[in-house]
Amino acid sequence: MGDMPLVLLILYTVFIGFMTLTPYQLDVSPEGPIGRLLQFFADHQVTSWLTYTLVEKLANVAMFVPFGFLLALHMGRRRWWVGWAAGAAFTCLIEGAQVTLLSPTRFGTISDLITNTLGAGIGAVLALLIMVLLPERDEPEEVERVVR
């Protein structure tokens, strides 16, 4: 895979930073797109269990799955766990910044810390499974060339 996981990880980390460290959240008012979608779910018996709190927790998990996945792929089979540990550290930084620097508009919570770390862990474990199930690529053998 080369450097592709690292390049994607850098881009995805910037995306997470943008989503979590800007002063304003997505529009979650009842009139906004998320509010209308949640109202749609609430209006139907089959999906009425999809509350804002549950959707927020699932979104937090989902947002960190690619982070853990890409970092674990980059680190390899022996250090796959770094994807999980770095996800936990990164979310600690995010939640800390939200509590201290962005407190008027953002809210750092233990729940976010747990769900983000869980997402990074799921991603790292998925990457490990893929690395274990897929055979390692053989590096091409060095060819000795003689110049005459």
**Strand percentage:** under 5%
Number of folding domains?
Answer: 1
Number of helices: 5
- Write down the overall mean pLDDT: 87
Shape: elongated
Please tell me how large the radius of gyration is. Answer: 20 Å
Write the H/E string, N to C: HHHHH
The helix-and-strand class reads mainly alpha
Poorly predicted regions: none
**First and last CA, distance:** 36 Å
Q: Percent range for helical residues?
A: 55-70%
Outline the secondary-structure elements:
Blueprint: H1 4-21, H2 33-42, H3 52-75, H4 82-100, H5 110-133
Question: Can you describe this structure?
Answer:
InterPro entries: Teicoplanin_resist-assoc, VanZ-like. Keywords: Membrane, Transmembrane, Transmembrane helix. It comes from Brevibacterium aurantiacum. The protein is an all-alpha fold. The protein has one domain (3-133). The chain is built from five helices and no strands. It has helices spanning 4-21, 33-42, 52-75, 82-100, 110-133. The longest helix has 24 residues, at 52-75. The radius of gyration is 20 Å and the shape is elongated. The mean pLDDT is 87.
